[in-house]
Design goal:
Blueprint lengths: L1 E4 L4 H11 L6 E4 L17 E4 L7 H9 L4 E4 L9 H7 L2 E3 L6 H16 L2 H9 L17 E5 L3 H12 L3 E5 L11 E2 L2 H7 L2 E4 L13 H6 L4 E5 L8 H9 L3 E6 L21 H8 L3 E3 L8 H20 L7 E2 L1
Parallel strand pairs: 1-2, 1-3, 3-4, 4-5, 6-7, 6-9, 7-8, 9-10, 10-11, 11-12
Antiparallel strand pairs: 5-13
Helix pairs in contact: 1-11, 2-3, 4-6
């Protein structure tokens, strides 16, 4: 099987090249540019393409892939909201993803953001580099014996629950399908979780029902001085309403690994450019906000798992033994 990787970074190449030796039946080619209507023709002559979380897999692109004989789209990520599934079904293209690679990696980053914004690590780091050792403006709060509210308790949310428990926090959660293995977690309604949490962390998928789950109404339900973290999907949060909440001092701190309108920024070096998104610039202007570059997944263990599962998905497709949990329909 010949696979064309779009939007392949140095760390993609390194991790997949380590794993490819275990799959002699697979041949891969890397392209640094991402897939679009202008670059889809590069996939001609290949059996499959591999995309990432922000790859353009809209109907026109998928139809073009179908026309050149592509039968398989591999996603080296868990999310698939960027894929037009009606178009893939119409074109007879199978979509396979990596539903679980290292939930601990994402959960650990979520807690990193929570701790960093709570203890003002970003501000302290800059101050000390300027030989300013004043403690003014660096006061945080203990997480010990506070309440952690987790929205979504799949594999990543469950890992976050365990981390919060390890910090001595009371853990409450909202999920339509409670995780029976989390016997220390108290499940509550969404409104109760919003009202009672000192730390609130999102770990749910982006669907029609969860789009803008965090908005002016749900923000109004939250405790004052809540620490809020999102490592899931940017569109779970209505950013204009989040900014209004930050300005009204609703939040003690906000940690975001994802945010709306991040598409042009994700994984790109734009240090010599002007940010053309006012939303991004406004988020970066607040002293109690930390924004990272969609890096929660980025650990060596996670990359190894992503590589192995993605290549195994390709082999399974060829053999007709696809793991149903990895199939997107």
């Amino acid at each position: 099987m010949r696979i064309l990787f779009y939007d392949a970074t140095a760390y993609d190449k390194e991790s997949f090249n380590k794993e490819i030796t275990n799959y002699p039946e697979v041949e891969v080619t890397y392209q640094e540019i991402d897939i679009s209507s202008k670059t889809v023709s590069l996939a001609k002559g290949y059996d499959a393409i591999c995309g990432f979380v922000n790859s353009d897999l809209s109907a026109p692109v998928i139809e073009a892939l179908g026309e050149i004989g592509i039968k398989l789209i591999l996603l080296r990520c868990a999310g698939f909201n960027n894929v037009d599934l009606e178009a893939t079904k119409k074109c007879g293209i199978t979509v396979l993803r990596v539903p679980g690679y290292s939930p601990e990696a994402v959960a650990e980053h979520a807690m990193t953001l929570a701790l960093a914004v709570n203890r003002h690590v970003h501000k302290s780091y800059i101050k000390v580099r300027e030989n300013n050792f004043s403690l003014v403006g660096l006061t945080g709060v203990n997480f010990y014996e506070k309440t952690a509210g987790i929205i979504g308790t799949g594999k990543i949310g469950a890992a976050m629950c365990r981390i919060c428990r390890g910090f001595g926090m009371k853990v409450i959660a909202y999920d339509m399908y409670p995780n029976k293995d989390l016997d220390f977690v108290e499940y509550k309604t969404l409104e109760e979780v919003l009202r009672e949490s000192d730390l609130l962390s999102l770990h749910c998928p982006l669907t029609e029902d969860t789009h803008h789950l965090i908005n002016k109404d749900t923000i109004a339900m939250m405790k004052d001085n809540v620490v809020f973290v999102n490592t899931s999907r940017g569109a779970l949060v209505k950013t204009e309403d989040l900014i209004s909440g930050i300005r009204s001092k609703k939040f003690f701190g906000v940690g975001l690994d994802v945010y709306e309108e991040e598409g042009a920024n994700v994984f790109e070096n734009r240090e010599d450019e002007l940010l053309d998104s006012s939303i991004t610039a406004r988020l970066l202007s607040f002293p109690n906000v930390i924004v990272t570059s969609h890096q929660a997944f980025l650990t060596m263990e996670a990359l190894a798992a992503i590589s192995q599962i993605t290549l195994q998905n390709a082999v399974d497709f060829e053999k007709g033994t696809v793991v149903e949990a990895n199939k997107v329909e």
